[in-house]
Amino acid sequence: MEGTNAKYVSQKISKTRWRPVSSSSLQQPEVFAAGSWDNEENKISIWSIGDNVLSGMEDEFEGDPQLLCECKHSGDVLDLQFLDQERVVTASSTGAVTIYQLRPNIQAMSVSHRWTRAHHYPCDNAPCTGVVCKSPEIVTVGEDGRINLFRADQEALIRTIDNADSSTIHAVTFLKTTEILTVNSIGQIKIWDFRQQSNTPAQILSQTGDRVPLHCVARHPNQQHIVATGGQDGMLCIWDARQGKAPASLMEAHTAEMWEVHFHPTNPDHLFTCSEDGSLLHWETTTSSSDMTFLQGGRNNSVLSRSAVAPAGGGQSIISAWLSGDSSKGRLETTHMLPSQTLSVNSLDVLGQCLVCGTDGEAIFVNRQVPV
Predict the structure, then answer these.
(1) In this prediction, what percent of the chain has a pLDDT beyond 70?
(2) CB of 228 within 8 A of CB of 270?
(3) Is the peptide bond before 136 cis (omega within 30 degrees of 0)?
(4) C-alpha dist (Å) from residue 371 to 5, 6, 269, 318
């Protein structure tokens, strides 16, 4: 894909996340965090793609990410989120949740707080599988079926739902200010309202038939009831959280597990997915005055849809038509964002026109010309 730089880092990369930019500025992101897994010594590292970063390495290419600082990480980095521009939160396979503080000029970082056994079994630690942040609040989920609510400025746990799930919770996202949404290993979406003292979900959605594990979830940035998930079967599912207990649309996306799905934060006509099959797909919806068609590139050529309309549209008219039936005229296109790969693409993030992803091939790919 044009504009893509590859940086080989000698570590399997499990997570990549852009440092947020000011919402009032038009600048593109320049700094991202990466976490590693399945290495003898795992790390969290901070990188820059800014033009003003000086490199002492003669073999560096223009546009290559430059390492600013790194820190040892106990266990695999199973999730990674920026709390704000100065703090990063990690979820560890040891069950720990850690806040790292970036120093001025991001030349160093250090642990500012750690909840060591945030997730655990009676006699052992349980991997913390997901984290989502809305500063100062941090919500974590784990293999132990537990949901934790922390505040970055308080040591004590604010709230925990011990038996939120009898299976592994794989991912979590905010649905609204007081509501979160989790996905689990038996194909369920559960919505939780922290205003309620009850330890039971406010709503449960699930696929009919086989209970395929769901690995990832993303909420539409403008239409909060619209949710995308991906799982073990590589299918992209779009759900309407307001109604119905099953997905509104099902699309064949990948030939192996889908590890992450992300709507573009400011242009949600665009959606991105990555997979164990080594691919990263860019999904784009457009409207068409002709009969509804689905256009898909590469090996993707099949769409199964209950409502026969495009997923992830940003405009109200596209969204409403998509969820209400097959009267819409729409189009869905997919594009492969990476050269052909055999090893898993574990993580991606997109902000502005910049996309970053990490792979089991020990490479970080950055594209600064994403067509959105």
Answers:
(1) 84
(2) no
(3) yes
(4) 16, 19, 11, 20
In terms of Cβ atoms closer than 10 Å to its own Cβ (0-12, 13-18, 19+), residue 145 is: buried
- Pick from 368, 359, 364, 367: which is nearest to 47 by CA? 364
| 43, 67 contact by CB (below 8 A) | no
Identify the burial level of 209 via C-beta atoms within 10 angstroms of its C-beta, where 0-12 means exposed, 13-18 middle and 19 or more buried: exposed
Q: Which residue has the tokens 């970082």?
A: 109
Round to whole Å and give the CA distance between 372 and 370. 6
Residues in contact with 319: Cβ distance below 8 Å, sequence separation at least 6, in sequence order: 220, 223, 226, 313
Query: Do the strands 280-287 and 87-92 form a parallel or antiparallel pair, or are they unpaired?
Result: unpaired
Amino acid at 206: S
Angle subtended at Cα 103 by Cα 100 and Cα 108, rounded to the nearest 5 degrees: 80
Residue with structure tokens 């930019």?
21
For 259-286, what is each residue's pLDDT tens digit? 999 999 998 889 999 999 999 999 988 6
**pLDDT higher than threshold 60 for residue 309:** no
Q: Can you give the pTM of this predicted structure? A: 0.88
Q: How many CB atoms lie within 10 A of CB 342?
A: 8
Q: Report how far residue 121's alpha carbon sits from residue 140's, in angstroms, rounded to the nearest whole number.
A: 15
